[in-house]
Amino acid sequence: MTLSTLLVAVGPGDADRVDTLATAVTDVAVPTGARVVLLHVFEEDDFDGVRERLDQSDASPTAAARRQKTVRDLTAAFDDADVAYDVRGRVGNKSDAIVSTAEDVDADRVFVAGRDRSPTGKAVFGSTAQSVMLSAPCPVTFVRAGTT
């Protein structure tokens, strides 16, 4: 299967999974030559707070996404691995924005990160990851910390 576009969805809660996520994505992107679309989705209330902290009331979601530590760390890893990428920011419901962006960019695969869960919690993914897995127009890879 030829892969041309990988969508990587991240948020502020993914800071502890950056290395694992970067490895999982570059392991696919490098041999296939796929480009990466790195997406950071802000909830409406969160986005207003981010713009205030950036002292940029008119900042676009993409401009704000580029300033997020998780995004900066991942783009540095992609630069090191010579992986082509674009950064995008969206405001709204996280799972809807991820699925919509996957459709918009014609993604061949979506990567979402998740956290370790209790034995009971392992039976069910988080609501965002689960919704993306059920609704995405392409395969979804779930990456959790410490899996590489």
From TrEMBL:
Residues 5-144 form the UspA domain. It comes from Halorubellus litoreus. SUPFAM superfamilies: Adenine nucleotide alpha hydrolases-like. This is Universal stress protein. Belongs to the universal stress protein A family. Pfam families: Usp (PF00582). InterPro entries: Rossmann-like_a/b/a_fold, UspA.
